[in-house]
Every structure is written in structure tokens, then in C-alpha cells.
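[stage:ingest] chain + small molecule (flavin-adenine dinucleotide)
[stage:ingest] validated
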Amino acid sequence: MNGETIVVGGGVIGLTSAVVLAEAGHRVRLWSPGEPGATTSAVAGGLWWPYRIEPEERVGAWALRSLEVYAGLLDRPEETGARLVSGVHAATPLDGLGAWAAEVDGLRAATEAEYTPGDGLWARLPVLDMPTHLTWLLGRLEAAGGRVERRTVTSLAEAAEGARAVVNCTGLGAAHLVPDAGMRPVRGQLVVVENPGVDTWFTHTGTGSESTYFIPQPGRLLLGGTAEAGADSLEPDPVTAREIVARCAGLRPEIAGARVLGHRVGLRPERAGGVRLEREELPGGGVLVHNYGHGGAGVTVAWGCADEVAALLDA
Ligand SMILES: Cc1cc2nc3c(=O)[nH]c(=O)nc-3n(C[C@H](O)[C@H](O)[C@H](O)COP(=O)(O)OP(=O)(O)OC[C@H]3O[C@@H](n4cnc5c(N)ncnc54)[C@H](O)[C@@H]3O)c2cc1C
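[stage:predict] done
[stage:export] C-alpha cells:
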């Protein structure tokens, strides 16, 4: 055994886990087939909020730990991609949230001027500019001595060969790699427009596959969205794109005329029973820790999950 820890997967979950492990003194190699910009994580809206993720009893602690880390990154937004932005979650009564909500500063019912009709929740939360944040994570990993290699694995046993430990952060890839029949894609489509002056975010997720949200990012405004369970096409659908713009313009009319800069599609890695974050002993004496299935909130929980990976490896 060579004493190395192999992290498989270069999205926000793999990169954050690799950073925590490298900074704790592990010799880390991260394997990923492509650049971080080619992952689902790069498509994410980047808003801190536990949406479409389970199990509820573990998510709160992971999310609060991540909130604490993001708060420490806000003074260098150009570098880290982290900013505090105010906004409204529609149809989200304060008393319907989990116990974690009591630990989040400043959550309150929206006033009529901020959002009507009723049931709007006002919050000031971290928003991560994901392409910038992923690049920053990569730099932080390399600064801690971690090595990044372009590599696709066909089995976790291949990664385990000779290594002390393997951390499986392959998101939707875990469906085939583990294999895990509980994994399914939840397709999300976004439209990227020139920002016509919107400086707050808004979400209304509803119960069907259509949602309405906008999130300001540097130089652009992200418009959403969809949550289509089981759909796996990465092709943006033009009709869906027009409907997204129309729904967002229904709330902020200036969005109707905003120049379209691009279209994005990502597949949320959702898992029946929720995130799999657990340790397995390997036959050759090594350790395998799974960290996948973060659904619609991988950015929101990445640091709490990474800390737990480190604890499981050292257990
Ligand atoms: C439209 C949209 C909006 C979203 N908005 C938000 C948001 O506002 N806030 C939030 O918290 N979350 C959001 N999410 C959810 C978030 O994007 C995911 O939960 C998160 O990206 C999952 O991260 P991950 O690292 O597990 O997966 P990924 O980013 O998919 O990374 C998986 C990595 O594993 C690699 N991999 C897979 N198979 C193999 C293999 N066989 N060998 C080697 N490497 C492999 C992949 O190449 C990739 O590098 C959104 C998602 C979508 C689609």
C-alpha cells in the first residue's frame, strides 16, 4: 500500500473532500475525466439552501458547517466566488423548515414590498459563482499538496489498487460504478442572460417539474428552471428555455428583453434514501468512503460532508 488517498470525482463534492483531506495531512490524488467546468457542479445556481436533498436528520448539520466555511470566504469574492446576496423563497413558511433554520441568521417572513402574495421567506445567503469557486478549490487543493489527474475509472477496485483509501465522489457516475440502482438524474435547465439590473435572487420551486428562479452572478443572471426526475438529456430544449424566460419575466418584467448569453443543463445526482456517506472496509485492507447522491444541494452541504469523510477515514 502506498499510503495515498484517491478521491474519484472532480465536482464540488470531490474537490471539497480532497481539500479537507489534503489540509489534514493526507497524500491526496484526485481523479477526474475532465476540467471542473465540465461537471454538474459548474452548472449549479450556487445558492446555499437545502433543496431536494435527504436525509433530513443529517443534512442540517452538513449545511450549517458549509455555511460557516462560506462565511469565511466572503471577503475575497473575485477569488473564491462567494458572495452574500438577499432574496426571497416563495411559498416557504418559516415554521415549515427543519431545526437547522434556527441557526441561520436573519431568516424572516418577506414584507409585502419584498414579495406578495404571502408566505415568502426573506434571507441573505451565500451565492457561489461556481466556475470561479471550482477553480479556487482546485488551486487550494494544489497548494495543500494534492495532485489532480485526468482519469476515468471503470471500477472502484481499480482506484483502490495500492491506495490506502478511496473516496467515491462520482455523483451520478456512482449509478454504474458502485453500482447503485437508487441513483437517478433530475434534469435542470437554465437560461443565462445579461443582467438587466436584478440584484436579488428569487425561487419558487412548486411541486411539479417546473420552477421559477433567478440568481444574480457576476456579469450575468441565471434563470431557472426545471427538475425533471429521470430525464437525462443534456441538450437545452428551446421551448423550455422560452418558458423559463417568460416565467421569470412575469416577476421581473425587465428580464423579458434581456440578451440571452447561453443555455445550461445539469443532471442533479439524486439517490433514493438520500446522500450515501459511509465507510466500507476493502478486502485488501484499504478503506472506501462513499460521498455521493447530493441531489439539488451539493454546494450547500459540501464542507460538512467533506469533514465527515475525513472523520470516517480516520475512524
Ligand atoms: C440546474 C441546477 C441547479 C443547481 N443549483 C444548485 C444550487 O443553487 N445550490 C446547490 O447547493 N446545489 C445546486 N445544484 C445541485 C448541485 O449541482 C449538485 O448537488 C452537485 O453538483 C453534486 O456535486 P458532485 O461533485 O457530487 O457531482 P458532479 O459535479 O457531477 O461531479 C461528479 C464528478 O465525478 C466524475 N466521475 C463520474 N464518474 C466517474 C468515473 N467513472 N471515473 C472518474 N470520475 C468520474 C465526474 O466526471 C465529475 O468530475 C444544482 C444542480 C442543477 C443541475
